[in-house]
Specification:
By secondary structure, the chain is mainly alpha-helical. About 65% of the residues lie in helices and about 5% in strands. It has 4 helices and 3 strands. The protein has a 3-stranded antiparallel sheet with strand order 1-3-2. Helix 3 crosses helix 4.
Length: about 120
Amino acid sequence: MEDSPASKVYHSIKHVASILEESESTLRHWEKEFPDKISPRRKGRNVRVYSEKDIENLRSIKYLLRDCNLSHEGARKQLKTNNKKVTRQAQIVENLKQIKAELEALEKTLDEVGKMMPKRS
């Protein structure tokens, strides 16, 4: 489903870097390495703004490079032959990381509550 340009939401490079927990320079590097997958629009003074599709592609690239330890060339090949599968796998990994963080936070909270409870003799 293609959005009309008027309905698209764009994000600054700083915001996208924060979402992906990567540096802005890494995003710029990936933009050069994967020009067919990442093409941020340019606004006044050449400021990059990323679409949701760009962010999805960046997540896939991050997954292939960081989680699968592929080279740039290996990642390009995977994206070319299995883009939908890679996108789905990247989303699953991202969801699992979020669940893990939530469980760790819950565990910490439960530990703190346990410390406040009176000890049984």
